[in-house]
Design brief:
Largest sheet of chain A: 8 strands, parallel, barrel
CATH class of chain A: Alpha Beta
Number of strands of chain A: 11
Oligomer: homodimer
Number of domains of chain A: 1
Shape of chain A: globular
CATH superfamily of chain A: Luciferase-like domain
CATH topology of chain A: TIM Barrel
CATH architecture of chain A: Alpha-Beta Barrel
Strand order of the largest sheet of chain A: 1-2-3-4-7-8-9-11
Chain lengths: ~350, ~350
Amino acid sequence: MKFGLFGGARTSMGNQPSDSQQIHEFIDYVLEAEDLGFESVFLVEHHFTGFGQVSASLNLLSYLAGRTRTMRLGTAVMVLPWHNPALLVEQAATVDVVSGGRLDLGIGRGYRYSEFAGFCMDMAEADARYQECLDFIQKAWTSKGRFSHHGTYWNYDNVVIEPAPVQRPHPPLWIGANSDASITKTARAGMNMLVAQNGSPEVVGHKVATFRKAAEEAGRVYDPFSVGVTRAFHLAYTAEERTRQQELRRRFLQHVQDLSLPPSGPIPGNHFQGHGDAEKMRKLTESDALIGPPDELIKRLKVYEAAGVEHMLLIDVGGSLEALRIFGKEILPEFKGKKS
Amino acid sequence: MKFGLFGGARTSMGNQPSDSQQIHEFIDYVLEAEDLGFESVFLVEHHFTGFGQVSASLNLLSYLAGRTRTMRLGTAVMVLPWHNPALLVEQAATVDVVSGGRLDLGIGRGYRYSEFAGFCMDMAEADARYQECLDFIQKAWTSKGRFSHHGTYWNYDNVVIEPAPVQRPHPPLWIGANSDASITKTARAGMNMLVAQNGSPEVVGHKVATFRKAAEEAGRVYDPFSVGVTRAFHLAYTAEERTRQQELRRRFLQHVQDLSLPPSGPIPGNHFQGHGDAEKMRKLTESDALIGPPDELIKRLKVYEAAGVEHMLLIDVGGSLEALRIFGKEILPEFKGKKS
């Protein structure tokens, strides 16, 4: 099993260092993670949160390209509806070039009402805007020479998108997929898959197997790195600390829900908007989140590994450099040297 | 006099290495320039050129922030009409944060018809789009807490732009100014000034003096670094080489004009669209461009210095690492240690 980081700089709620300080602490944390053996970092993209989540994700990745050596540099995800497609492709390709081909471009539709409201964009347009931008990205990265695009939201005439990326035909595209149908579609489309932060090892294992089967049926050589499973991760050595960390996780999820919910109530299928349900929240903070002492977490990670998960993206890794180092010293060696 | 680089990666016309190769060669060139004593790099932003000019300038600067130590990282210029203002402010602030406060944000309206045509944007809207974006930038960087913006082209509700930049109140804004009136306005607005690539030392000296006078009258402490004068720079040791370098310069300017001219003919006041005039082109390639052997160029640079120019941005510095090193060894020491 390989490990990556998921998330990005942000303040703890109620604890507000300067934006600069928190970004530089995050950078130090990523550099240390690479030294410890983490093989990827996937940054979120969020706007107007008031608690410093990463906004200009591709700029932070460009910087990290200059400070890291081998780590894959990912987004999870770039929210396509908010971006000028041509500028986005140029920016992504530039990250790929300066990093020597290390970009993993995760893309999505966005799920937080507060962000669409901030951009004065109707959330009902998210699907159509996402699809148009994705069509443009694929056209830009597969067209020979100049092309035009005339869509609902964007128009371009006779353009060539420079620079060309290093990875050919283009950096891997990653998308979140949940149902069997969307997982199969993702695998067939040649994309990689991000698995959401909830679900038992059995459920996750079924998703990995579904992806692998569809990928192989489509003629792809299955790469275990191509499925990233995301889990919150907090070290807790005592029952009290476990409860405290679960509470921190609960508060964060509640905050994300508050940012996501439209005034009119939850949008069906938007899984970030139902955390208020007590049973769901209990699962998210207890059975889904990896919270506990190292020996327990090793056992739980091995259950995921046995279920077919070979690329685990950890949120926060305990939230400190100290916890990261404990992970690197006590947990990661249990998974080193495995063929994956 | 301090020196900076102006421009960015691009292929020579008719000579097409890969995009990745040319960007990495440009990166090596910038890193070497910092070691030699260059104090700034200002990147252009261009799109759809087909010869690899830098498109995602703030991403390349983010990368350079991770590889350089002291150099100021500038844009000359970001073309505001093409950008989502909120995303642009987030990106610029991120460069400022990761670089430890080294961003110099040059901004402009754009001047190439081919780029506006590529974006399917009416060039007649450039001024209004520029002004709206600039208003947003200044609001974002001076508002306490959340704000809204409802303009002609963009709308935002109740947003806070994160991260905050390191430089306070915000990174310096640089704009191109030409007439006495616009120079005075720039100085009074607290902005820095980019001086165009044409004009005799006397003309340029008048502009610097006009800026300085207006800045001091407005209560600013005049910083000589705050006026950047741009000049093409090519080493040429023989008459034949001088002619060849002038021809290279002429071809480049002609190409830029071809990209800039609307089918309907030149737009009044757009100084990138009149190079075809033989006398103007002669001046641009002979008296304005710094083309010659080191001893001649030292003398010419000292004329600019005597006219008040203390921040000289050089285009290409001869187009090779070798020429850059000759500049560092033979020319730059003539200006070292001067109080500026």
